[in-house]
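Minutes, methods subgroup
Present: GH (chair), OT, SY

1. OT presented the first of two proteins processed in the latest run. Sequence and structure tokens recorded below as shown on screen.
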Amino acid sequence: MAFRKSLDEKKIIVTLLYDVFDAHRDRFSLSMQRNTIKLVERRMSAEGMSFLTKTLPRLGKAFDKALSLEQPLSANLCRFTTGVGKLPRFLGELFSAVLDTDGVPLHEPCLKAIRSLRLVLYSFYKYKLPDDDVSKQRVVSQFLQTEIDLRTVNSELSSLHSEFDSLYSTGSRISGSPMLNIVRKARIKLSNLFSSFDPKSIIPRHGPGAVSTKEKLWEKFQWTNISSRIEQKYPIDEYYYSSINHVCDELLGIRSLGSVDHSAKVILVPKDSRGPRLISCEPVDFQWIQQGLGRAIVCCVENHELTKFNVFFTDQGPNQRGAKLGSSTGLYATLDLKEASDRVSLELVRLLFPAHLCEYLEACRTTSTQLPDSSILPLGKFAPMGSCLCFPILALTIWSILNAGAPDLNTRESILVYGDDVIVPTAYAEDAIKLLESFGLLVNRDKSCTKGFFRESCGVDAYKGVDVTPVRFRTVWASSRSPDVYDSYFAYARALFNRQCYRTYELIVSSLRHIYGPMPSEYEFPNSPLGLPYTPSLGKLKSRVNKDLQKMEYYVLELESPTIVKEINGWSMLLRYFTEGISPDADFDRAVERIALGKPSISEVSSYTQRKTSKLVRRWR
């Protein structure tokens, strides 16, 4: 591969196709290769980047549906010319190795061809292109429509709640509707889970993100307003100040605290080529308690016998292994929920969760959010994405409903939940979908795999036990030095090498080398993510012998997050230390003494790292 000074999407996709041709030499003649490249160039000239970000992924989704036995592949429906039967002429040599002429999987499809096809079709599906006004408005409109839908859901669940209370408040075992039986079982499960959980035994803290009240990282410990709803459950002297002396010293500030409930605030952040992601920033006083309560719930769930093998928050491994096993045996299905965080209604949480926890969940829940046009929208959902409580309550809601509806112990033990990624026995899949949707949740059937041998969950795509996850480019290439570009394309290069895409690997590494200088290889850094499998002969890294450590060192680029040091008043520093700085091995008394003397450790209370502010630096490693 000749060295190229610049890199763009067209070069990447063309080079990736040549890697596919190399991997399937017996299927592609030289004329076939030229025709395929010309087709891509022609369609990119006509459609622009949408060919890579929309047209190819559309064909990829249709291909996945065919693998899942949901719908035979038809090239015409995907805006591609047909070749043999219903198969596309584009890469038809590979499609025919997987599907018959009717678009249905062969009895023994070529797994290598599946991996290559998905690598090409999904390569730019999650590319982070700038969002236009149309995509932004579409996301906001969908958010509004979901709230409209939740009004009906909340009304229906409120009636169900009243009916449940009238039937079971006296402990009666009178049989109600199937829905009531599900509610009863789900409530029992969650009540047992939280039977010894104390929602007041938390350590509040601030999150790393923005807040709707606009405080900077170092301003968050200076309280200007605390909601009276929170204060009733989490008194300010116990949860917002470091000590009684702290309260006394800032008495004037406490007197000026209002009882105003600030709204959350909707912001749109870049996601991928499909459009932006909607996040709701929480007010600082709500975020403070949400972080503490959310972390306490996660700790409880990950350590409780009822849930520690079924509900996960920090480890995607069980769901990923479950997807591979399901693709191998067909015994397990993967479900994906659509708009999952936005469709967990407030009434659903009230219906399922024990009252002693629910009152605290509601106390630190924002009741409205500000839209981009500055209008205020009352929220019917429990918590939008952005709240620390959103993820754990979503996962527990899904688990409790599916667990309650499971027909036997084996099914219950086989349910795995990681956020909105769910794995259930295939025999239970259709009932599970109906159950979830009967409570106002919405299953994304396009991404759920209940038939055939294709499964996807938590970033792993598998077919018949083989990992067929493509390398997805997300970061847009930049011809000037950029920490994000360097970090991302370094990772893409390693992933492509592992998939035997050697031409594309060399193209990326050579392009990185042109801008960033010599690249580290695994020769210098064996068994380390710092090194590439190999580097073209385009210069060597500086090296030296470290006599103190008795080893060879190399001068390499690394990402560094700049530290901001901000001095805040002593009480605020003490509060931050109590909530964030204490570790099991910390010398607590010495730390308190330093703070009292006005000599706190900078690393403990005055250092802040802002997100997305990384820079590239060279260090000896």
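2. SY then presented the second protein from the same run.
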Amino acid sequence: MNQRERERLKVLYEVKQKHLTQVEAAQRLKVTDRQVRRLLLALAERGDGAMVHGLRGRASNRKLQTSFEQRILTRVRQRYADFGNPGRGAKKRFLEFWPFRNPPTSNSR
């Protein structure tokens, strides 16, 4: 749990102990009072772990399969050898001209 999540947890516990109102907690956390109510419900259901983002430690849904990414990098290096480091921008430009419109993601089966 990072510092921001710990701070959220402290403020929510203050709300549970009636030391703060939901509106005051919302102002401290810079969220809406509706979001504070949602966080309080999640805290009651799942405990302290509810403050941690649900996708932490998991791969992005948008991540390309490693084999596909390597094919892209190989083609970029061959075709644009004098272009410089084939970073994210080069891959993006390359994908614009790639014959397949929907690249496979790591979640596709």
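Chair's summary of item 2: The chain has a mean pLDDT of 82.
Next meeting: continue with the remaining queue.
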